[in-house]
């Protein structure tokens, strides 16, 4: 068991691989808030997928653009169900196949097919540029869609003279229970999570839609206090368009994203020297001389306020503003008492008679 992320709270917006990601984070000590932003559902009415498959059989594509592993597997499985599996694999085998990422490449190879090229960035834009250089005029391209339509890619290829057959295998849908996502929105806006993870670009848009009027507050929190971690550059693009700084691993893998969080989050922790003690603030916990001390939200809020101006005395009125609306000065005294009890180290939080409290830093 590792404690690299102990004391930190991390939001997970993934659906399909949420348990895997949560396990990777929890094994490193993090507290995880599960809040799927979207879910992947197969096309309920497969008329469109069947029509696209028939179009590929009638006019074998010169180029296949495979966007996702789950999409390619779903397409081939559906074709098998219609008795068209072998004919479809035969026409795909004769095409110049581009796999947008490693999962799509894996699905292609598992089906006994071969891919000829993949982009470094895993972005549709890089695929389009490659295909335009390859030459698409007069050619037919089968584009396996990544959830929703990608008109910017289709339009660019058609403008270059290609005929594009869009292949819809699944679509994005809102989560069955939206309550966890709305709770995560509130936690981000209130700075009660330290990081939030994204594994798809549509999940970013879904989170901001769920935020509604609070979207600006959520973006502001992620620009300053809540770390946004994305599995890769394609996922990060919508946040970067909103000027949100993002961390993303060089290779788009869940494990790599977790390692990036392990490297980054502890560096953001605040460290103070108080007498002979070393105090570190981590999300929902303090670390005193290397020992983790989990704290409730109110004592943690008081500690953060005191640590923001170490050595300075903060009055009860000033500390009251850090607590939930409706609290009174007695709630401040209770929060300070719980903070002292939670830290278990005398002298870290000092009372200054008739003035307030402070951290007596060196």
TrEMBL record:
Top-level division of the source organism's lineage: Bacteria
Keywords: DNA-binding, Lyase
UniProt-listed CDD domains: HemD, trans_reg_C
MF GO annotations: uroporphyrinogen-III synthase activity
Tagged with keyword Lyase: yes
Pfam families in the cross-refs: HEM4 (PF02602), Trans_reg_C (PF00486)
SUPFAM superfamilies, sorted: C-terminal effector domain of the bipartite response regulators (SSF46894), HemD-like (SSF69618)
Matching Gene3D superfamilies: 3.40.50.10090, Winged helix-like DNA-binding domain superfamily/Winged helix DNA-binding domain
DNA-binding region: 269-361
Record-annotated OmpR/PhoB-type domain positions: 269-361
Enzyme Commission number(s) from the entry: 4.2.1.75
Main enzyme class: lyase
Alphabetized NCBIfam families for the sequence: PRK07239.1
Name of this protein: Uroporphyrinogen-III synthase
Protein source organism: Catenuloplanes nepalensis
